[in-house]
Amino acid sequence: MSIRMIGLGSIVLATLGSNAAFAEQKPAAANSKLPLGITLQQTAAGPVLADGKGFTAYIFDKDKTVGTSACNGNCAKAWPPLIADANAKPIAGWSQIGREDGSRQWAYKGKPLYRFDHWDTKPGDISGNNVGGIWHIAIP
After folding, report:
1. Does residue 103 lie within any of the structural domains?
2. Which residues contact 16 (CB under 8 A, 6 or more apart)?
3. Which residues, in sequence order, are CB contacts of 127 under 8 Å at separation 6+?
4. Range of the domain at 42
5. pLDDT tens profile 55-87
6. In a domain, 2, yes or no
7. Whether 82 contacts 115, CB under 8 Å
């Protein structure tokens, strides 16, 4: 698995494309291994990584150093990190990074994961995609 960035243009193409092409896009199988607190959620853009409640996970282009989050303070208020439960264990492709506040944040392939609190109001919302051209949905 790898994370792909999808801009709004790709979403439009996906929704305007044939139903057959969209139908082929299935959520990563139930046998896919995800750590505790991470799920897959079906969205208009297809399956995305999500938190335990089904809220879309995002990656941040300014996270340039593997294993380090560049989103802290006010940034983290708008884009809360996906915090790893104390009992959660990393598995293949997944890691936990330390945050400035001492918490542990999930990262996939070294990219820290976040939610978007401003406009994502229900599971499956992807309104944070391509915000500022630097936030993108996390796709397995």
Report:
1. yes
2. none
3. 116, 118, 119, 120
4. 8-26+36-137
5. 999 999 999 998 899 999 999 999 999 999 888
6. no
7. yes
